[in-house]
Amino acid sequence: MSISADTLRGHTDTIILAQLMKKDSYGYEINKNVQRCTGGRYEFKEATLYTAFKRLEQGGMITSYWGEDGPGARRRYYAITEEGRQQWQESSEEWKETRIILDALLTLEVEYESN
Amino acid sequence: MSISADTLRGHTDTIILAQLMKKDSYGYEINKNVQRCTGGRYEFKEATLYTAFKRLEQGGMITSYWGEDGPGARRRYYAITEEGRQQWQESSEEWKETRIILDALLTLEVEYESN
DNA sequence: AAGAAATACATTGACAGATGAAGTATATCG
DNA sequence: CGATATACTTCATCTGTCAATGTATTTCTT
Fold first, then answer.
1. Where are the domains of chain A?
2. What is the least distance, in Å, from the CA of B93 to any CA of chain A?
3. Mean pLDDT throughout B56-75?
4. CB A105 to CB B21 under 8 A?
5. Is CATH 1.10.10.10 the right assignment for the domain spanning B5-107?
6. Can you give the distance from the CA of residue A104 to the C1' of nucleotide D9 in angstroms?
7. What is the bridge-based pairing of β-strands B25-26 and A62-66?
8. Which of A87, A102, B49, B88 falls between 20 and 30 A from B58, CA-CA?
9. CA distance A45 to chain B (A)
């Protein structure tokens, strides 16, 4: 089974931020990581990925720099900012909440209990 | 904390189908149910809700009929079709998969293990 | 009885995120 | 030498969300 994009829509930015929490990285590598982490069930379309980088950079969540000129194609590396770390923190908290709510709404087996 | 719409985008149709799995219902009631189930953390905007009904009906997932003329404003009831039930089944399976994958991607604490 | 609030549905235009498609460039492998 | 992998970029288009606006009825409040 592969995961439809609309289901993950809205999580794109947080997924990228999560990757950058570990270390600076670049588009291609991040996408390979996502593929690996999901057992090949999901990958970003290139346009989605680079659109997200632009959005995140404009929002001050990440900064970018060109990698050293080694062999191979040039890479643009991204680094998460302090603001980005906070954003990731908030988004992943929200995810935990969302998960519970969606369990309730999609299956209707249980009602959501507030704390 | 309330849940941002973008995070739930893509789940709208499945949430509605889940409600209709129980019994026929109408827009206003479904939305009140969603509010109740989420402890007030989420509700559909009206335009979103009625857009979704139209989409689902055009896709053959639901059918609709006007409620009996009782007291109160007229209500358009919706009923889930066999196709809709199958769709709900698939979508909620997908949700279980998605949940695991997003846990991995958003927190990066674990890698997704395929079966 | 008058006015506010709740119930109930519908449409339209604008906006944001995702994406197909196309393009640029280098390195590696057979 | 051609195919494939690596790596980034932009643009036009599509889809779902939603603010705004409108219609209509009933119930609650004073």
1. 5-107
2. 10
3. 86
4. no
5. yes
6. 42
7. unpaired
8. A102
9. 16
